[in-house]
TrEMBL record:
GO terms for molecular function: methyltransferase activity. The keyword Methyltransferase applies. This is Class I SAM-dependent methyltransferase. Signal peptide: none annotated. It comes from Trebonia kvetii. The keyword Transferase applies. Keywords: Methyltransferase, Transferase. Transmembrane segments: none annotated. GO terms for biological process: methylation. It comes from the Bacteria. Residues 60-159 form the Methyltransferase domain.
Length: 267
């Protein structure tokens, strides 16, 4: 494991963590309480999607990891098909095990989200929804913006994008309030924050490196062309925000806009 100071300066700690046993072991060992709260929040993401329970549709889960968010959507929609995109062989291997009951309803695609441009061939040119859970905060601001534009382009008209992620406090007063409430809920949190071992410091530096406040991210979504943009849920430093690609899209020549037919199964 690199020295903590070097880690803070390095751009590559994200790959060093997630493309290694550090990431997958940490993910498997997370406290039940955190995992339970994440699970509740992913249910809301599923509830926000506009599909009927038995409607066929295809969605992409960006930074899908072991597939916790994708599985939640598959549980809510009996005819949904998931494409799980991630860059970590370790997380994907663990996911293949956890996704066994969903065989035939999903595929994994290797995708490094830091790479702007064309999406991997395993992702269809048009998808009905895109979700991400606890992964976008690993991308720098420039890439968050270009990724949101790529998601918009990949979505069928009317298709939704939802992101569950941690955000940075916008100022020290807010940070103090978040910590106060968090420490009252979890009496061990303060001690944990101040007694990290080297691996925890390494992971923490990576975790917060590109984390930014909520407001600019909502602005990035609007700038990418999404409508219906909202923060659908927020509690302290965790949020679910998203929006949909409009049914009416501007023409390539910049004209007044035309109706783009939705693909089959899209909202
Ligand atoms: C905290 S885990 C969340 C996994 C899953 N979305 C969930 O909610 O359970 C973060 C995931 O993002 C993936 N990830 C981080 N950076 C990535 C990148 N540049 N490209 C693709 N995946 C990335 C990691 O491999 C890991 O699986």
């Amino acid at each position: 494991m690199p020295d903590t100071d070097d880690a803070a300066a390095s751009e590559d700690t994200n790959a060093a963590i997630w493309k290694s046993d550090i990431g997958v072991n940490f993910w498997r060992s997370r406290k039940d309480d955190r995992a339970r709260r994440d699970a509740e929040r992913r249910v809301l993401m599923a509830q926000l999607l506009p599909f009927a329970g038995d409607e066929p549709f295809t969605f992409v889960d960006l930074g899908a990891g072991t597939g916790a968010a994708a599985r939640t959507i598959l549980d809510h929609y009996s005819a949904a098909h998931a494409i799980l995109a991630d860059f970590s062989p370790q997380m994907m291997a663990q996911g293949e095990t956890e996704l066994e009951p969903y065989a035939g309803r999903y595929s994994y695609v290797e995708f490094d989200l830091t790479a702007a441009g064309d999406w991997p061939a395993g992702i269809p040119a048009r998808v009905d929804a895109v979700i991400s859970s606890l992964s976008v905060h690993h991308l720098n601001d420039e890439r968050k913006q270009s990724l949101f534009a790529e998601i918009h382009a990949q979505l069928a008209p009317g298709g939704w994008y939802l992101n569950y992620d941690p955000v940075k406090p916008p100022d020290p007063v807010v940070e103090e309030a978040w910590l106060r409430a968090g420490d009252r809920r979890d009496p061990e949190a303060h001690h944990r924050r101040h007694h990290m071992n080297d691996e925890e410091k390494f992971r923490h530096a990576n975790h917060v490196r590109y984390m930014i406040p909520l407001e600019p991210q909502v602005g990035f979504l609007r700038a990418a062309g999404f409508e219906g943009v909202d923060v659908f849920w927020k509690e302290l430093d965790f949020v679910i925000y998203g929006g949909r690609r409009p049914l009416l899209s501007a023409t390539a020549s910049g004209g007044s806009g035309g109706v783009v037919p939705p693909v089959a199964g899209s909202a």
